[in-house]
Design goal:
Bound molecules: adenosine monophosphate, glycine
CATH architecture of the largest domain: 2-Layer Sandwich
CATH topology of the largest domain: D-amino Acid Aminotransferase, Chain A, domain 1
Helix content: 25-40%
Number of domains: 4
Mean pLDDT: 95
Strand content: 15-25%
CATH superfamily of the largest domain: ATP-grasp fold, B domain
Structural class: alpha+beta
Largest sheet: 6 strands, antiparallel
Length: 420
Amino acid sequence: MRVLVIGGGGREHVLCWKLRQSCRAEKIYAVPGNAGMAEVAECEKIGYENNFSSLGRLIDKEKIDFVIVGPELPLVNGIADYLEKKKVAVFGPSKKAALLEGSKVFAKKFMKKYGIPTADFEIFTDLTKAISYIKKEGPRVIKVDGLAAGKGVFLPNTKEEAIEAIELAMEKGVFGEAGKRIVIEEKLKGRELSFIVITDGKSIKPLVSSRDYKPIYERGKGPNTGGMGAYSPAFIPFSLYKKIMKQIVIPTLKGMKKEKREFKGVLYAGLMIENGNPKVLEYNVRLGDPETQVILPRLKNDLLDILLAAREGTLDRINLSWHSQAAVCVVLASGGYPGSYEKGKPIMGLEKLFSLNNVFPFCAGVKREDSSLITDGGRVMGITAVGDDLNKAAQQAYRAIDKVHFERMYYRRDIGKSRI
Ligand code: AMP
Ligand code: GLY
């Protein structure tokens, strides 16, 4: 079978790495891929986010049998519908179902309608009304209504900061259309948890538990990023697991069916847990990055079997099976990220990782120039290590990182150690 993975981050690298282990995967392609992924997939730098016609041509030319979509943007823009219409098998939800991530306003209204626990909220389309609400209620969480690469959520500490965020979105138009409508919601306290399931619309298979670290600095300080690291397992008590399934996952999938937006693919609920009770912070309609980099190395099954079964509606026949070992992924970022940063820094020492057991570098913002690899993004790569427990996995990941270097390389030193 000829398989194509859409995306070019660490999540897509680990997807290709795991697919490579499948005896059914005859050839693996990636669009656009990255220089690290080129070791396991044939990468093609063509458009894939909004306009799918070049992709369609590649699929015809290379006789691709199955497409697996990593990131949210093409899903929200209808890539699955385009491919299904073209009679190409695809793993990923339809445009209608992907609205769960594509619109915060849709997601919040949906949760309210179906009684799914989430933070109390108000929706605003008027700048003056939004500002007077903040003046009356104090600082709240502010979210723009659309995809903003993780940058459209503000957690202001003061009314002034909150008003600044609202103005940025609604007046200055920094987020384009997405900023014209905003959600202002209650700030939740507790521990965050990523709860990720795979579904074919009938069966639901939860993946092993994981947690990611969003803030740039240790101890949860500084602005949020796409994710600076992750670990698995995250040790969810069974009582909490049952609550998440009963109060969140099952009603979400049933509700979406009722709305004629049947969901098939990966549903990722970003949760806040307070006193053992889960509330939804956000829905994602795809695998997490860097959560996938700690989940897939623990998976025993053939990934292709699972994704095909989810597409074909036969997920009930699959039993997911996991290694008991723990995994930790530490993201190496360009100094300055998530703000501005420089690219083009040579990456040294990666070859030294080959001699280490249970260490897997998954590349993201990495490009090849002549014979060397250079940085090409904010999150450059994630180093995943597997070990008997989280401490051992974390130790091994940091031992590996000591061998890698690029100018102004930045990483958090508490991944897998501080159990957020
Ligand atoms: P979201 O994209 O909605 O998940 O927001 C990104 C991050 O902002 C989350 O992972 C949380 O760390 C934080 N966040 C979002 N909403 C809230 C909230 N209502 N209360 C506290 N933190 C939040
Ligand atoms: N790690 C957070 C995300 O994938 O959205």
